[in-house]
Amino acid sequence: GTILGTSNVHALHTIRRQRHKQRQLHGPSSSDEEEDWDSTDAEGGSSSNGNGSRESGSDSSSTEGQPDATSSMLGAQDELEQILDKLEFWRINMLFVIGGQGGNLLGAQLAEGCQARRIPCCIVGVPKSIDNDVMLMDKTFGFDTVVQEVQRPLLAAKIEAASARKGVGLVKVFGRRSGFIALQASLASEGVDICLIPEEPFELDGPCGVLAFLKDLLERNGHAVICVAEGAGQELMYPDGQPVQLDEAGNPLLGDIGIFLKKAIKAAIPDATLKYIDPTYMVQAVPCTSPDHIYCRVLGMHAVDAAFAGYTGVMVGQVNSHSVLLPSSVITQAARKVDVNGRSWTRLRAAIGQPLFRNPPAHAHKATSS
C-alpha cells in the first residue's frame, strides 16, 4: 500500500468535514456514494471513546495556557490547525521543511498535529540557516557561502582603513544569537583586529574596554578593522536591567550594534576616520559555493529517503561527518552557540591578539590601591 489514500483510518468527523469542504468547492461528486463505506471504517479506526481522533486527542488541551513561539509567529494557534486542514484536504503525504530553528519548530508541531489527527503525512526538516545556529549539526547549508562572501566587505574595510590616518573599518555581519559567521570570517581574513560576537560579553569603556584597545591599535598600526555580529553587545543597549523587547515570534528585537559602535567610536576618538559597512544582502543574495551546492544535494537526497521510509518529525543533517536523522523537537530546543572556551574562539583571539574586554571589578581597584 501507499500512504496516500488511507482516509479510511481517519476519524468519522474528519471524513465528513473533508467531504463538506469538497462539496463547497466543487459541488457533489461520485465519491459521496462511498461515504457509508468510509464512515464504517473510520468508526472502526477511531479512538476508544468513539468521538473521533480530534475530540479524543489532546491537540488543543495540551497547549492551552502554554506559551507557543511558533503559534505566535503564525498569529494564532488556529493557523496551525488551518495548515493541518490543508495537508489533510489536499492529501499531502510528504512535507519538507527547509529552515532554521523557527521553521523546524513549526515542522515538529505539525508532525505532532498530524499524529494526533491521524493524518498520514511524513514531515522531514532540512537545516538551513546561514548563521549555522542549528543545534548538534556540524553545519547548515549557506554558511560556507556567506563566510566566503563576507571576505569582500572585510577586505574593503581593510583597504579603506589603511588608506586614511587613524582609519577604522567597521563591518557588521549576520548572527542574531550565534557568532559563527563573524568568527569564521575573521579567521579566514588576515585583516581583522577586533571580533565581537553575542556569546562573549564585552565592555566599551574602561582601561580594558574595546575603545581603549582600539586607541592602542591606532597608535601602533595607524588603522584597525572591527568585525561585529548583529547580535553582539545587546546588553549595552539595554542597560540597568531594562527588559529586551520581543517580536511576535518571541525573538528579541535587536538594537543596531553597528550604528551604536559607530557613534561610540566617533565620540571617543573624534579624529578617527571611520568607514561603516553593512553588507546584508550583498552576502545573502548570491549564488552558493560548490561545497554548499554539494551539501544541499546530499541533504535533499537524505530527506527524500527519510520520508519514503516513513520517518516523520525528524531533521536530516551531518553530525561528526555522518549523515543522521534526529528528532526535530530535540534540535529546536535551543540555538547552537560558539563555545568561548573552545578551540576556534581561542585560536582567533590568539591570532589577532584580542583580550577579553572586561574591566576588573571596582573592589579589586580598591584592594590594589590600599
Can you offer a commentary on this structure?
The protein is built from 16 helices and eight strands. It is an alpha/beta fold and 370 residues long. Strands 1-2-7-8 form a four-stranded mixed beta sheet, with helices on both faces. Strands 4-5-3-6 form a four-stranded parallel beta sheet, sandwiched between helices. Helix 5 (77-89) crosses helix 6 (101-117) and helix 8 crosses helix 15 (343-352). The N and C termini lie far apart (84 Å). The relative contact order is 0.14.
Give the helices and strands, then pairings.
Blueprint lengths: L11 H15 L8 H10 L8 H4 L12 H6 L2 H13 L4 E6 L1 H17 L4 E6 L15 H20 L4 E7 L6 H9 L5 E3 L13 H12 L1 E7 L4 H4 L19 H12 L4 E5 L2 H5 L5 H19 L5 E6 L2 E6 H4 L11 H10 L9 H8 L1
Parallel strand pairs: 1-2, 2-7, 3-5, 3-6, 4-5
Antiparallel strand pairs: 7-8
Number of helices: 16
Percent of residues in beta strands?
Answer: 5-15%
Rounded Rg: 27 Å
Largest sheet: 4 strands, mixed
N- and C-termini, Cα separation: 84 Å
| Range of helix content | 40-55%
Strand order of the largest sheet: 1-2-7-8
**How do the helices and strands follow one another from N- to C-terminus?**
HHHHHEHEHEHEHEHHEHHEEHHH
Shape: elongated
Point out poorly predicted stretches: 1-16, 29-76, 363-370
The class by helix and strand makeup works out as: alpha/beta
Mean pLDDT value: 80
Please give a handful of descriptors for the protein shown.
disordered C terminus, 8 strands, four-stranded parallel sheet, four-stranded mixed sheet, 370 residues, disordered N terminus, alpha/beta, 16 helices
